[in-house]
Amino acid sequence: MKISNARVIVCSPGRNFVTLKIETDEGLTGIGDATLNGRELAVASYLTDHVIPCLIGRDAHQIEDIWQFLYRGAYWRRGPVTMSAVAAVDTALWDIKAKAAGMPLYQLLGGKSRTGVMVYGHANGRDIDETVDEVLRYRDMGYRAIRAQSGVPGLNAVYGVGRGRMFYEPADADLPSEHDWSTEKYLDHAPKLFARVRDAVGWDTHLLHDVHHRLTPIEAGRLGKSLEPYRLFWMEDATPAENQEAFRLIRQHTVTPLAVGEIFNTVWDCKDLIQNQLIDYIRTTVVHAGGITHLRRIADLASLYQVRTGCHGATDLSPVCMGAALHFDLWVPNFGIQEYMRHTDETDAVFPHAYSFADGMMYPGDTPGHGVDIDEKLAAKYPYQRAYLPVNRQAHDGTLWNW
Fold first, then answer.
1. If residue 96 lies in a helix (H) or strand (E), which one and from where to where?
2. Torsion of CA 108, 298, 71, 324, to 10 degrees
3. What is the biggest distance separating any 2 CA atoms in the chain, rounded to whole angstroms?
4. Is residue 216 packed enough to be buried (19+ CB in 10 Å), middle (13-18) or exposed (0-12)?
């Protein structure tokens, strides 16, 4: 089965998405997500100008060889642009192979390891009272696990707190907006938030929190220790992980479970974290970590050290990535949890899908392939709109900080 054509579809039904569609000489097609928030056109160009010409005429069944060709053959390995492009090809080829087999993708991976996929939702509020109300609303919607984020008194903008209730979109401007930050205010505020949330929901609901790379290792250790009484499911992205050894210092000071990895691109970004058991959950994604082929390798390494998966699932990952991730989640033996940020109605219409949510769990469906398609005519009605993620500056002196 030869690859006869491939093309990139860029659309913006509420936010930008990059989708690769691969066609074969047997009439089967597959799609993969290639979205990289704030750098979408870089990946689109990488695919159109450098990858697609190399795909035409290749056997669509040779997923492993094509993956190696695109990774090893590029010479310039790794990085978010390269690995997002590789992931799009890989996901589309797995979609085609599963369709050719007449199976949902999870069956081709090895079948179910569980009956459904536990997901967590995002409860965000401008203050503690509003966040508590949102947590209770998510619990009433059936969520068994909820991430809680709150505005911090004295700061004009805090990660996770945006416009609207169900749909949080951080890429908010044609050029980067600037937010302020104060570690001192945040470290004082976060324990108060979780004391109130835990008091409101009791102990039967899992609670999660995202620090978003904003603390030093010792500050993260202090936060983790202060949150121990509230028994978090995890504390996410506590400190930048370019230096994987930084997590050793956090580990020495807290038993709060640690999660990291949504911006990782290969197994090398998390190898030391995993094999030294410095984290509890690895959050690498289908789209940014080289597709299903490479994500399986990361999960297999993690399983040796009792590290579980917790794949990133924000709205800047398209429904194509969500569908592929759910098939992966249903199969992977060392599954932990799946992030689930709901897409807008406009996005769901452009990307019709087989997956569904019920009682805190998601199900990928049994449609052959990964179960997600793209309505190209509808997509064409939503042209690309440049949008950037914000940047952060320290409130006291304007120093650029981690957003």
1. helix 80-101
2. 40
3. 62
4. middle
Question: Over the range 286-316, which residues count as b (16 or more CB within 10 Å of their CB) and which as e?
Answer: bbbbbbbbbbbebbebbeebebbbbbbbbbb
**Contact criterion met (CB below 8 Å) for 157 and 180:** yes
pLDDT digits (tens, 9 = 90+) for 70-119: 999 999 999 999 999 999 999 999 999 999 999 999 999 999 999 999 99
DSSP label at residue 343:
P
Alpha-carbon separation of residue 241 from 47, 203, 252, 286, 298 (angstroms): 28, 31, 16, 19, 16
101/400 Cα distance (integer angstroms) = 51
Residue 212 amino acid letter? H
Q: Are 394 and 180 in contact (CB under 8 A)?
A: yes
Q: What is the pLDDT of residue 324?
A: 98
Q: Is 294 known to be catalytic? A: no
- Residue of 212, 294, 343, 370 marked active site: 212
3-state secondary structure at position 258: strand
Say if residue 162's pLDDT is above 70. Answer: no
Q: Whole-angstrom Cα distance, residue 303 to residue 135? A: 31
Catalytic site includes residue 382: no
pLDDT (average), residues 46-52: 98
The helix (H) or strand (E) run that includes residue 52 is helix 52-55
Catalytic residue from among 159, 186, 340, 382? 159
Q: Nearest-CA neighbor of 119 among 339, 326, 286?
A: 339
